[in-house]
Amino acid sequence: MADVARLAGVSSQTVSRVSNGYAGVNEETRRAVLSAMKELGYRPNSAARALKRGEFRTIGVITFTLATTGNVRTLEAIATSAAHEGYAVTLLPVAIPTQDEVRGAFTRLEELAVDAVIVIMEVHLLDAATITLPPHVQVVVVDSDAGDHYTVVDTDQAGGTRTAVRHLLDLGHQTVWHLGGPEGSFAAQRRADTWRAALTEAGHVPPPLVRGDWTAESGYRAGLELAARENCTAVFAANDQMALGLLRALHERGRRVPEDVSVIGFDDIPEASSFLPPLTTVHQDFAEVGRLCVEAVLRKMRREGPERGTTLVPTRLVLRASTAPPPGRDAERP
Question: Does 130 score more than 90 pLDDT?
């Protein structure tokens, strides 16, 4: 740092301010310092800087799968938001969601020197009595029903589901079938529970739930079963990939969408508007979820925020061409 300061003709403090990205350095001086750094091959010592500051400027992320769209897009949003705040992200995938694996993941992250941890917890885990997170680590959890014990950020699963079911009922459908996600998923359970409750509250009998595993293949298999049911005129799929498989099955069995069967998905993936027909779906704001996760974990690190509670990110229904009134009903679309 002293060599850089001499070459640039500035103080070591100015070099420190430039290398740490602080404001208050005029642009000409900043360029001179950066040029000297480049010429001398200077790189800030992150370990020394961490010891001096008492922080590593790194957030750890534990996730149990990268196979789902929601987890991948949430992770992307967390990384983007962290970078905007000047933090790096260290990702640690965990293959098996058990207490030992969780404890081991936190130990490894501590060895990798992180300031806080975000856990993308799609599976039912924190509800179990055998699962606890280290009390000395600042933690924010995504996609979990653990708001009484931890700081949680999640999409408004229930609100999005109610909007989807209400849309289909308002079109005149007598009931709405549900193509649900896997049993172990909190999001899948919340969507299934709300689907059932919304139908019951509206005076409609919920049909049997048909379950998939988030993939288009499972949606196709379930779709073959649903296509064989003449009384099935509307389906709410728990995610867009399963809705894609469902659309294929309905097409192969001669059930037109939306003339014979209306279909709604959940997520609003970028490809949803290119489905045939374009898919009506519930939009999740993954970018906002990621931003709020980083914001929450930084507040906890600074002791500025609540230790527990859930923040819900609103959803919205995106209307496209896959929903319409049921056969024989001439109601106008809302």
Answer: no
User: What is the per-residue pLDDT for 332?
Assistant: 47
Name which of 219, 152, 226, 221 is nearest 187 in CA terms. Answer: 152
222 contacts 211 by C-beta, under 8 angstroms = yes
DSSP class per residue in 219-251: HHHHHHHHHT-TT--EEEESSHHHHHHHHHHHH
Q: Which residue has the tokens 């809705």?
A: 243
pTM: 0.80
Pairwise CA distance, residues 236 & 164, whole Å: 7
**319 phi/psi in degrees, rounded to 5:** -85, 125
Residue 22 in tokens: 């602080």
Q: In what order do the strands lie in the sheet with 116-120?
A: 88-93, 58-63, 116-120, 139-142, 151-155, 309-313
How many of the other CB atoms lie within 10 Å of CB of 171? 20
DSSP state of 37: H
Alpha-carbon distances, residue 66 vs 107, 144, 149 (angstroms):
21, 16, 25
